[in-house]
């Protein structure tokens, strides 16, 4: 919701307050990722996908160009800037990298966003990606109830295969234990003590991987989030 506080921060950023500008960008990273995923019709991760860097620059541009009192909210304005910059990027990439786009003949119209999306390898089938964007948005909202963000997940995701497989196995076990799963969903807390006893994984490891475990357990246990399984690189089962 557009508030007076937001307007004051935007004005401060436009006047050169770099700390306020950084705060605005940081506090809106999830929103930037959500809008970008919708535009690109695929799941995007910070420090992995160029589209998010472009979207963040676009958000920064929106801060500079927004003028309060002209009818539109800042969020609508920022969404428009992000959308336009990403579409420009997709068009440039598709023309540069993919032979599937036929060069324009004189008098022909520029390919539409949908034409480009279908001709670009980085996009999956249109309807599936639109659905996935909706799943990602809902997943972000549910994660927020646990005070977890997508940015958090990128930072805490295990870099080593052994660690990733251990936490995935624990999450599968959690998802298959109704009592523990109900406790997590009701209290928005990880049942660390019982999980440690059940899986024989040290509490320290579980506590360090808390956010990652919560995210995986939600994906494994909630039908709404099953499409996100392909991003988890599962180790197998709970045994």
From TrEMBL:
DNA-binding region: 192-211
GO MF entries: DNA binding; sigma factor activity
Regions annotated as coiled coil: none
Short name of one Pfam family: Sigma70_r2
SUPFAM superfamilies membership: Sigma2 domain of RNA polymerase sigma factors
Major location (coarse): cytoplasm
The protein, known as: RNA polymerase sigma factor SigI
Organism of derivation: Desulfotruncus arcticus DSM 17038
Gene assigned in the entry: sigI
């Amino acid at each position: 919701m557009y508030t007076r506080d937001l307007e004051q921060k935007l004005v401060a950023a436009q006047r050169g307050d770099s700390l306020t500008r950084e705060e605005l960008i940081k506090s809106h990273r999830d929103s930037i990722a959500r809008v970008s995923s919708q535009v690109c019709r695929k799941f995007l991760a910070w420090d992995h996908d160029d589209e998010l860097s472009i979207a963040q620059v676009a958000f920064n541009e929106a801060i500079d160009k927004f003028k309060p009192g002209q009818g539109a909210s800042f969020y609508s304005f920022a969404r428009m800037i992000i959308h336009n910059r990403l579409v420009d990027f997709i068009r440039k990439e598709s023309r540069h990298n993919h032979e599937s786009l036929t060069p324009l003949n004189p008098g022909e119209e520029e390919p539409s966003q949908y034409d480009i999306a279908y001709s670009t390898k980085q996009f999956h089938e249109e309807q599936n990606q639109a659905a996935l964007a909706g799943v990602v948005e809902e997943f972000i909202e549910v994660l927020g109830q646990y005070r977890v963000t997508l940015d958090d997940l990128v930072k805490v995701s295990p870099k080593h295969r052994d660690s990733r497989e251990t936490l995935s196995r624990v999450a599968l076990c959690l998802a298959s234990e109704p009592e523990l799963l109900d406790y997590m969903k009701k209290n928005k807390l990880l049942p660390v003590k019982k999980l440690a006893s059940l899986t024989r994984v040290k509490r320290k490891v579980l506590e360090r991987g808390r956010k990652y475990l919560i995210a995986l357990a939600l994906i494994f246990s909630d039908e709404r989030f099953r499409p996100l399984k392909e991003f988890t690189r599962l180790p197998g089962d709970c045994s």
